[in-house]
Amino acid sequence: MIVSTMSTPDSRDTTGGDSTGPDTNGSDVSGKADTKGASVIVNAIAVLRSFTADEPLLGVTEIANRVGLHKSTVSRILATFEQENLVERDADTRRFRLGLGLIAVAGPLLAELEERRVAYPVLRELTELTGETSALMMWEGNQSICVEQIASRHQIKHTTPLGARYNDALSASVQVFLATEPEERVRSLIRSGAITYAGVDETSLDSYLVRLKGDSRRGWAVNYGESSLDEVGVAAPVYDHRGDVVAAVLIPAPRFRVSQERLQNLGESCAAAANKVTARLGGNTTGAAAQAH
């Protein structure tokens, strides 16, 4: 399973007390109540985001430490989520995992994503052709998010769970999206840590920007065991009718199955699949050609 990174807001425990009604000067404090309500929602979202593909089971104390809330607050939030099937308890450990109720919440959104609907048959063909997992990734500010996946039929495989988020600069899909950003924004994202790049300095940052230009010219990006020693990833951009990158097709595979020769074949197959999705969206790659030069 590929590493998934999720950002967790730094929240305070603001669930106690009643803020409705006038204050001592007779003024209305409903604005404070609205602020408190917003904080409760932010805290609840932080609890949900504390679960990751690598750590799907968490206890109350672990969650509290991650989101910066008191354990009693986390317990109340989890109890509500459990009632709504948004989380469930593991029968053996009594720790929590995300529940199937989230599918009902996310389902309408996923169904409306045109890129996901259009890409699905292409991903199936790609997995049949390569024997490896294929996935569709989309960009959200500074994270590449998996919105669709067709798993490999091999017993040993790498998968990208729906909703998994990645912000490692060396991730193939992250490279695809960053290659569309202005250089100064890429520098800012990496320097701030919003995009992670271990041991980066100005020299390696300059080299990384050159690498992104190479990705654009070639038509696909590669991560050959750089973010995870046992994994290889290749990704290629999907364009809309304006020539903007709106998604990326990704092939993650175990490194032992991918020689340098096969890496080239996977990259070409990934780029061909991304071009099919682009065509099905009515997209064009005119902007891509200009950007590469």
Short description:
The protein has 10 helices and 8 strands. The chain has 293 residues and is an alpha+beta fold.
Q: How would you characterize the overall build of this protein?
A:
The protein is of the alpha+beta class and 293 residues long. It folds into two domains: 30-103, Orthogonal Bundle (Arc Repressor Mutant, subunit A), CATH 1.10.10.10; 113-292, GAF domain (Beta-Lactamase), CATH 3.30.450.40. The protein has ten helices and eight strands. The strands form two sheets. The chain has a six-stranded antiparallel β-sheet with strand order 5-4-3-8-7-6, with helices on both faces. A two-stranded antiparallel sheet has the order 1-2. Strand 1 and strand 2 (96-98) form a beta hairpin. The protein is globular.
**Tally of DSSP helical segments:** 10
**Cα separation of the termini:** 36 Å
What is the tally of beta strands? 8
**CATH architecture annotation name of the largest domain:** 2-Layer Sandwich
Into which percent range does the helicity of residues fall? 40-55%
Poorly predicted segments = 1-27, 287-293
In round numbers, the mean pLDDT is 84
Sheet with most strands: strand arrangement: 5-4-3-8-7-6
Question: Which superfamily, in CATH terms, is the homologous superfamily of the largest domain?
Answer: GAF domain
H and E order? HHHEEHHEEEHHHEEEHH
Task: Give keywords.
alpha+beta, Arc Repressor Mutant, subunit A, two-stranded antiparallel sheet, 10 helices, globular
